[in-house]
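In the design runs reported in the main text, the only information available to the sequence generator was the tokenized backbone. The following block is the verbatim input for one such run; it is reproduced so that readers can re-run the procedure and compare outputs position by position.
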């Protein structure tokens, strides 16, 4: 999962760099309600996180890869967490242009 987190971080840093003085993209913007409703059975990323059994988004880093991948496969249109993150980043970046 470290590679997945590193890729997400790099993509977010790239967006932040391109946007200059603007703030880094929040996970709520990345996993917007529109994205979540279109691709998952949840209204928001916060509901997704709670249903996963976590208190907040930051705890995703501590969860076992298989647990989150199984949850994502069952509850979303994606096969795993990495695929979900990549699509969120892609859609977010596309929305900037």
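Verbatim output:
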């Amino acid at each position: 999962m470290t590679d997945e987190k590193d890729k997400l971080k790099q993509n977010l840093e790239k967006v932040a760099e391109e946007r200059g003085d603007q703030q880094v993209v929040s996970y709520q913007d990345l996993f917007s309600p529109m994205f979540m409703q279109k691709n998952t059975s949840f209204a928001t990323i916060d509901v997704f996180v709670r249903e996963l059994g976590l208190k907040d988004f930051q705890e995703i880093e501590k969860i076992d890869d298989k647990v989150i991948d199984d949850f994502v496969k069952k509850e979303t249109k994606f096969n795993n967490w990495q695929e979900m993150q990549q699509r969120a980043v892609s859609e977010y970046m596309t929305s900037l242009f």
